[in-house]
Every structure is written in C-alpha cells, then in structure tokens.
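Q: What structure does this chain adopt?
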Amino acid sequence: MPDPPPSPTTPHTLAFPLPSSPTTTLHIHLTPLTHTLLLFLTTSTPSTATPPSLGSFVYAIPSRTDVPLTTPLYLREGTVEFATRMARVLCRRTGKPVYVGWSGEVEGVAGTVEEEVQGWRLVVDVVMEVVGK
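A:
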C-alpha cells in the first residue's frame, strides 16, 4: 500500500551544503501550519563537535505596508539580523505570519555578498517549494 501524502503540518527536515562553502551544511526544519510557518535554520561543519547555541527567534506578520512587522522573541547578538531578514522575506512571499529561528554562523561562511545572496535564495526557494507558492 502506498504511503499517504504528507499532512500540511508535517515537519520537513532538510540539509544541504551551502553553494559558497561546500564543507558547511545548512540544516532546515520547516513546519508549515495552516496560518503560519515555523522555520529553524542552523549550520554545521565537519569540525563542529557540539551543537550551536540557541540563536535568535523572530516573529514577522504581514502589514498594510510593503514591509512586514517583526519582533524578536528571543535575542542573541550576531544572529538577530539574519533571522529578522529571513522572517521578513518569507512573510512577504507567503503572506503568512512567520516564526524564524537562526542559530547558524554567517561570518566566515559567505565570503562575498553574492555568495550570501545565493544561500538566501536557496533557503527561500526550498521553503517556497515546500509551502507550494
């Protein structure tokens, strides 16, 4: 008997190397809920012996203007900017409230702005594919 199709709230766990740094793996845990998205992102390298510390957790909601409203629910310096930007992008693209947790490392992973944008696009494309928009 074939497996039933996944429920719309089934968590999706993905991992893939970053385009700019093949030794760095980006881990995505996405739970698309009916009215919101819950996304956790982190990075790891072969030399990572322990899991990264808890990073920032940001909430974004659509607004009447073009820029979604965001608020950090848990703040960790060095990770809040990335989590906020990702939450805004996904909120704007999906039209849903979004929770984003980010505990990865950006410094030293993406050497240039173009490489960082490639990583961003990869995450957004994967999330949009799973969400179906």
